[in-house]
């Protein structure tokens, strides 16, 4: 069974591995990419009727650069000096559409900004319940803002939305060229917080140079839509459950079991599709010519559409 699952996962990867090569994103040890990199999504002026909604919330200490990141991303160009100047946010929401033409997927992103000040907690709490994913920001020159992610911000979100996936982002990465190493958070500090909060991804970004800004959102989409990208979460393998009915949007995935006769291939399939141990009758060796089974599996939490598995 274990081996079968591994085969299944490998196949998922093979089926989906048609992406750009030579990109690698260091996600604090989390496997969070296709074999060839992250799937890129581009801003598109118009939405599509079948765009999936994805609500992202940025949070972190005030003045750590959250709003600049959002502006940079939605406008697709570097933030201006005016935009980089710190203007405290109460609440702002931006909307934009992004698409990957190759696989024909469009997302309707809601970018939800938050006020970083402690006294706006009552305003933040209802928003936490509505969001699909958190982008947790700290400033690369402030170890206090990094510590606050673990000590303040993530505990506050998790009170309302305990399982929300988190992408950890260091802002103002351009400061690495201007400040001494003692003024910059260390990779060990970052790694510790990333692991403590169970971040699904971790990147350093700059709204000034635009470095990695787009990557943040590509990670969010990959994490949410599970377009073949997550094959291991921070907590292990992503579980899919059998479901009696499929969704019209289920993706087809064709799997072939092979190996010597009488090695138990058919019993594995029966066991998996029925979700229970094979009976003695089924375990008894009956030579198979060719049989095809069909079943639907889904992971409600991250993949609303699921897969339609076809076993040959
Ligand atoms: C995109 O999302 C926003 C906010 O959820 C919603 O108001 C809007 O109708 C959506 N647009 C489309 C085309 O789905
Ligand atoms: C990722 O970053 C960590 C520390 O930030 C480093 O120790 C590790 O070697 C990096 N991994 C890769 C594959 O670059």
Automatic annotation (TrEMBL):
The keyword Ribonucleoprotein does not apply. Pfam families: Ras (PF00071). It comes from the Eukaryota. One of its GO terms (biological process) is small GTPase-mediated signal transduction. CDD domains: Rho (cd00157). Keywords: GTP-binding, Methylation, Nucleotide-binding, Signal. Residues 1-17 form the signal peptide. Coiled coil: none annotated. GO terms for molecular function: GTP binding; GTPase activity. This is Unnamed protein product. It comes from Ambrosiozyma monospora. The lineage of its organism: Eukaryota, Fungi, Dikarya, Ascomycota, Saccharomycotina.
């Amino acid at each position: 069974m274990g081996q079968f699952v591994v085969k299944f996962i490998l196949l998922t990867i093979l089926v989906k591995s048609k992406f750009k090569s030579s990109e690698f994103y260091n996600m604090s040890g989390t496997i969070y990419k296709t074999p060839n990199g992250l799937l890129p999504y581009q801003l598109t002026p118009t939405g599509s009727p079948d765009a999936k909604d994805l609500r992202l919330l940025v949070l972190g200490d005030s003045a750590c650069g959250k709003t600049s990141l959002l502006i940079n991303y939605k406008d697709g160009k570097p933030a201006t000096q005016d935009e980089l100047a710190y203007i405290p946010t109460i609440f702002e929401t931006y909307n934009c559409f992004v698409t990957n033409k190759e696989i024909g997927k469009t997302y309707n992103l809601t970018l939800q900004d938050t006020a970083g000040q402690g006294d706006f907690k009552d305003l933040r709490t209802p928003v936490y319940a509505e969001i699909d994913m958190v982008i947790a920001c700290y400033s690369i020159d402030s170890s206090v803002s990094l510590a606050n992610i673990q000590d303040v911000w993530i505990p506050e979100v998790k009170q309302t939305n305990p399982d929300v996936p988190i992408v950890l982002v260091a802002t103002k990465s351009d400061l690495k060229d201007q400040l001494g190493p003692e003024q910059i958070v260390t990779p060990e500090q970052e790694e510790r917080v990333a692991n403590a909060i169970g971040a699904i991804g971790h990147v350093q970004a700059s709204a000034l140079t635009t470095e990695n800004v787009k990557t943040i959102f590509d990670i969010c989409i990959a994490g949410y839509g599970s377009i073949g990208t997550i094959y291991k979460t921070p907590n292990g393998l992503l579980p899919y459950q059998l479901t009696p009915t499929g969704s019209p949007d289920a993706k087809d995935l064709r799997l072939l079991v092979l190996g010597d006769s009488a090695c138990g291939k058919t019993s594995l399939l029966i066991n998996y599709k029925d979700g229970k141990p094979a009976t003695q009758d089924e375990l008894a060796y009956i030579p198979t010519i060719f049989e095809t089974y069909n079943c639907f599996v889904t992971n409600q939490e991250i993949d609303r559409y699921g897969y339609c598995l076809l076993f040959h």
